[in-house]
Amino acid sequence: MSDADREELMRERLHRLADDVDPRPDALPTLLAATRRRHRRRHVPLLVAVTAAAAVAVLSAVVLVVPGRNAAEPVSVGPDSYLAQPRPGVVAEFDLGSGAHDRRLAEVPAATGALAADGERVYAGTADGIVQLAPDGTGRALPGTDDVPERISAAGGRVAFPTAGAVAVLHGGARTSVPLPPGLRVQDLALAPDGALAVLAAAPGESAARLYVLPAGAHDWRPLPDPSGCGPVAVSFSGADVAALQPVSCTDPRLRVTTLRAEDGRIVGGGAVLPAERPLEPGEAGLSTDALGRHLVSVPGGGQWLVDGAEVRDVPWPCTREGECAPDPGVLRS
Q: Which keywords does UniProt give here (predicted)?
């Protein structure tokens, strides 16, 4: 084979390599080895230079030609803050990174400490019902919430809170009452964007609370298996999955957030261990989840952490510049 033929063959191979936007990891070394075997030593410098240029072309093709990624666009991750009530009747935002008191969102007379967030909508429980707070701090009382809600959950334009023997759901100006299994005492609840419900509740004669899930459109509550054997202490939704805050074991009070499939309770995420120092009662801690799948775990008198996959970060307890601190857990903006 002449030098001209070898050069043409090499060019064809390089073009095929550059056209492949997802080359095998060994494509370039293989081409180098094959070409070196066919060329005299005096052609090696030229080959290396040409193949290096081809490698740059391949990388450029991978970066620029991948379908659907021709133009990089910034992705908003939403506000890096959470909500808490540092003093009676005041709802404020706090920075997750520094713990600084960002701003006062609203004054809510007779607030009970129950909070929930659904995007830009914030809900606060009061002695007269639930108040919805707009981004500018103005509030309006929600109809159909004459009860005094101890806990609130909000998602997908819905608001849920426990009542005697049922869970009340507000949606589109209407109130629906979802009956609970007889005798259940709700210690925590969570609402998914599609309308599914989860409650942490104790049945008569049971010392530990269990998780019960009501899928969207269903009528029967499903008990989920208890991964720890000694009961979760808080519940939230992480997308379509249930996030449960639970002790590592019945003899180890440290906590972790375990993610469970809502349909059968199968564990799909274990979570890092949090340095809790004492056993907790169901409903004593706060667990909230944002749209990025991060969890805020708040233990009054015990600490506060942001759980992002395997990473755990300490978050200062919500206190004002004047030293007033929230008695109740904070809530992530979703």
A: Membrane, Transmembrane, Transmembrane helix
pLDDT digits (tens, 9 = 90+) for 275-316: 877 889 999 999 999 999 999 999 998 899 999 988 999 999
Task: Give me the amino acid identity at 316.
Answer: P
DSSP string, 252-321: EEEEEEEEE-TTT--EEE--PEE---S---TTSSEEEE-TTS-EEEEETTTEEEEEETTEEEE----B-T
Tell me: pLDDT of 58 over 90: no
Going edge to edge, which strands form the sheet with 139-141?
Answer: 111-118, 121-126, 129-133, 139-141
Q: How far is CA 263 from the centre of its chain?
A: 19
**Cα gap 200→226, rounded to integer Å:** 11
3-class secondary structure for 95-142?
Answer: ECCCCCEEEEEEECCCEEEEEEEECCEEEEEECCEEEEECCCCCEEEC
Choose the weakest-confidence range: 184-193, 205-214, 298-307: 205-214
Report the alpha-carbon distance of residue 325 to residue 310 in Å, rounded: 28
> How far apart, in Å, are the Cα atoms of 322 and each of 86, 89, 101, 108, 289?
10, 16, 10, 19, 28
- Complete edge-to-edge strand list for the sheet that includes strand 295-299: 286-289, 295-299, 303-308, 311-314
Per-residue pLDDT reduced to its tens digit, 113-126: 899 999 889 999 99
**pLDDT-derived band of residue 109, with 50, 70 and 90 as boundaries?**
confident
**pLDDT the model gives residue 272:** 87
Residues 6+ positions from 246 with CB-CB distance below 8 Å = 227, 228, 230, 231, 232, 233, 255, 256, 258
Judged against a pLDDT cut of 90, whether residue 190 lies above it is answered with yes
| Tokens 């520094």 found at | 98
Backbone angles phi, psi at 127, to 5 degrees: -70, -15
DSSP per-residue string spanning 174-240:
EEEEEEPPTT-EEEEEEE-TTS-EEEEEE-TT-SS-EEEEE-TT--S-EEPP-SSSS--SEEEEETT
